[in-house]
Structure formats: C-alpha cells, structure tokens
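Supplementary Methods. Inverse-folding protocol.

Structures were first reduced to a discrete structure-token string of length 144. This string, shown here, constituted the complete conditioning input.
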C-alpha cells in the first residue's frame, strides 16, 4: 500500500454512478415492490452501503478507512434504465473514490441478483466516478 502517513487530513468526498438496463416489466415489478425476494431498491441500498465498509477487503492495496457517511440513491433515467448513485465522505489522508465505486457496483449486482428470476438480460454499465474532492489533487468533476 502507498504510505499516506505524512499526508494532511482533509475532507474527502466521492460520488459514483452505475446504470442498470432492464425490461419495462422488470422495472414495474421493482417500482411496485412485487419481486419475491423483497424490496429491490432498499436491499440494494443496504448492500451498497455495506460494501463501502468492506472495500479494503475486496480491492487489493486499498486502505481500510473510517468513513463519515455513505449514501446510495436511485433514479429512473427512463422506463428501463435505473441509475444508482453513491456519495461517500470522510476526514482522512486518502480518497474515497474506490468506496463510492464499490458501493454502486455492489448495489447494481444486488439489483441483478434480486431480479434475475424474471430478467436475465439485464445489463450493468457505465460505472463512473462522477466527482471527488479533497487532497492534493483537488476537485475532479466528470465531464458528461
């Protein structure tokens, strides 16, 4: 791992997004909370938040971090596209980009797992760092 011991503590924030394409009938089942495994979005939200706390166990050479906050939110971009966005913050010596990216990835995989019995053709795509702030490199904003 990179030694971050000499770096100053700063406020760190990262936002990431993933998209899930699914059939219109599957999207409606999610909206109506009619899938047999339960409320897809709430389970995926919890899975994403839990994943932020386990990032160092999943990604080699990531630092184990004491996060201040982690949020996972959902938005329907269209009838068949679910966007998943995470925001992670902390005061620390290293960034939280990997935690935000892990959150949306695991949340998207959870949506897939919970819906695969009715739609095996779902596609997870466009896992993207949208924004990060803090540290020596400063502010980054993804150009859409």
């Amino acid at each position: 791992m990179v030694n971050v011991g000499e770096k100053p503590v700063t406020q760190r924030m990262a936002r990431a997004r993933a998209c899930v394409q699914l059939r219109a009938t599957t999207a409606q089942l999610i909206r109506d909370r009619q899938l047999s495994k339960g409320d897809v979005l709430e389970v995926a939200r919890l899975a994403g938040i839990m994943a932020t706390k386990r990032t160092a166990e999943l990604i080699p050479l990531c630092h184990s971090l004491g996060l201040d906050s982690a949020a996972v939110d959902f938005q329907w971009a269209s009838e068949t596209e679910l966007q998943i966005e995470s925001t992670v913050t902390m005061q620390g010596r290293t960034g939280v980009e990997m935690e935000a990216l892990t959150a949306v990835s695991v949340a998207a995989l959870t949506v897939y797992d919970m819906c695969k019995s009715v739609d095996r053709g779902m596609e997870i795509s466009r896992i993207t760092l949208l924004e990060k702030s803090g540290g020596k490199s400063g502010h980054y904003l993804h150009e859409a």
